[in-house]
Amino acid sequence: MSGITGDPFDSDEINDWRVYSLKLNQKIGAFELSPFYAYSDNDNRETTVHYYGVEAYGKVGIVKPSFEIVLADGDFDSGKDISSMAAFAGLELELSKVFNPYVALRYTQGDDDASDNDVEGWVGITDIGRFTPLMGMDGGILSEDIGQSYGATLYSYAPERSPLRAGLPTDNYGGISNGGRGNNPGQRIVAVGARGDLSDFVDKLSYKTQVFFIWYDETDNLNNKKNPAKKVDDYAGTTFDLQLSYALDEHFTIGYIFGIFQPGSGIEDQFGDDPALTNCVSLAWTY
């Protein structure tokens, strides 16, 4: 729920956002297959959206594949049509205790014309890419709120709040805090990384590192400040993260993450070429 009007404790339907979901799990050989459905009844943004999807994951020997695809279909009360999709595929290899590499692809559809009645930029009910099993990293730079430039807010990976050209409608609905923009540019990410246990070298130490190569899916709605006569370039940028974790005991872990976002020509066209850096120290308590 977002955009509260009036007394937040008053039962005013204009503030409501209700979501109903169903997910089934079926084991097929070495794989788990999970079809799911969600219905978003978003009075606050005057939209209704149906989400249909399926995910699967498993393990065959040292190979751990996973994938997910989701379709969105709905509309605004104003008559604008919502139609979009997102997909993910990943493959991890359990080569050794020390080194388990992975490669993954992440796609969210972008909108190519904010002035029409088709709202095609992907906006999920939420986006918590930060906490996903393969590409996620709690403290990774892409999920550290770079909404003023790339458009990904805290916890998310998708550029659902990318700044658009002046005068274009944003068609907000869904996403983190109900603030996603339906006319966002979408994304294509190629991710490579690795993780492992380094306790054979330093007791109780583990690591994860990854590089994201990030493209916009569509750039028609973005503002090229560098050269207004041209479209913004597709390549948004490159991120690198390194996470080191030291287990103090079975319940407490201290960690450090270094991250950098190096703008690609797409970000440079809009905001310049200054890189973003993060240094994060964390103390995690599990029980």
Describe the structure.
This protein has 287 residues and is mainly beta. It has one domain (66-72, 89-285). It has one helix and 13 strands; from the N terminus they run E-E-E-E-E-E-E-E-E-E-E-E-H-E. Strands 1, 2, 3, 4, 5, 6, 7, 8, 9, 10, 11, 12 and 13 form a 13-stranded mixed beta sheet that branches.
Summary tags:
single chain, 287 residues, mainly beta, 13-stranded mixed beta sheet, 1 helix, Alginate export
- Strand percentage, roughly? over 45%
**Sheet of most strands:** 13 strands, mixed
Structurally, how many domains make up the residues? 1
Q: What class would the helix/strand composition place it in?
A: mainly beta
Q: Tell how many strands the DSSP assignment holds.
A: 13
Query: Helical percent range?
Result: under 10%
- Average pLDDT confidence is 94
Distance between the termini: 30 Å
Spans where pLDDT lies below 50 across 5 or more residues? none
Identify the overall geometry. Answer: globular
Helix segment tally = 1
Query: Whole-number radius of gyration?
Result: 20 Å
Task: Map the helices and strands.
Layout: E1 17-23, E2 26-28, E3 31-42, E4 47-58, E5 63-76, E6 81-93, E7 100-108, E8 118-119, E9 187-197, E10 205-216, E11 235-247, E12 252-263, H1 265-270, E13 276-285
Parallel strand pairs: 6-8
Antiparallel strand pairs: 1-3, 2-3, 3-4, 4-5, 5-6, 6-7, 7-9, 9-10, 10-11, 11-12, 12-13
